[in-house]
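Team,

Forwarding the record for the chain on the shared tracking sheet. I've put the sequence and predicted structure together so nobody has to dig through attachments.
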Amino acid sequence: MSTIAMHQPEPATPEADGGKAARMLPTVGQRVKITGVMDDPDPLPVGLTGTVTAVTEFGHGIVIGAQAQISVDWDNGRTLMLVDTDPYTAL
């Protein structure tokens, strides 16, 4: 009996797909930075940083593809929340 080795694809990483792969959520008090153009009519500028004030996890279906909403006090005064599929990184 022979064994056939099957190639398993590498798991997606946030860096490989612009930050949209599954990743650890930031925690309250952690700093985050926008790393790409957001899908929003008035997006936050790339490079903007802010401090996480709340993280709300939810199941599928509320925001397509997203599983969490992240409240941030942005350094420029904006109040736009992130979803976990937005292009950001935790600092």
